[in-house]
From TrEMBL:
InterPro entries noted in UniProt: Isochorismatase-like_dom, Isochorismatase-like_hydrls, Isochorismatase-like_sf
Top-level taxon of the source organism: Bacteria
Gene Ontology MF term list: hydrolase activity
Pfam families (alphabetical): Isochorismatase (PF00857)
Name of this chain's protein: Nicotinamidase-related amidase
Domain Isochorismatase-like per the UniProt entry, residue ranges: 5-178
Amino acid sequence: MANQALLVMDVQNSVVSRIASDTEYLPRLAKAIDAARAAGVPVIYVVVGFRPGFPEVSSRNRMFGALTSGGANPATADAFQVHEAVAPRLDEVVVTKRRVSAFAGSDLDVVLRAKGIDTLVLTGIATSGVVLSTLRQAADLDFGLVVPADGCLDADPEVHRVLVEKVFARQAEITNLADWAASLRTS
């Protein structure tokens, strides 16, 4: 079996509150996290965050540029903490990224290489955001990829479907959380 890690990406309070279409998402993800922990598979959390004053954010950046006009620092605000239903344990790695991809502006690649990880199991919100961007970059970095379709959410269900069925399937094994968790018990 590959040396894999479960990535839980952008499952932060502010993101979860905007995408309430699947009320079973967090319980389903929590079960997969428990299965990973029980099997000794590292669970790595990826969150978006910035330094006070947002020096990493350009006003030209359409997604994050509005942050520079003031307000609370998302790195410390409760809205940007990992949702309590799937919160990391003290001994689990939390990687802070500065853009959409889990690799952009973070030390994720260093952490993965140090742990000898060669396969990533991608979960998170949103399918068309962090999951897509991370999948593309991870594929370019030669990681094996697994995407549990029900481990990802998007505000647009049709975009989610097209990405999982037509785009991700070209670069990743597509499964679901229950089957992935079951595979850990049979390995």
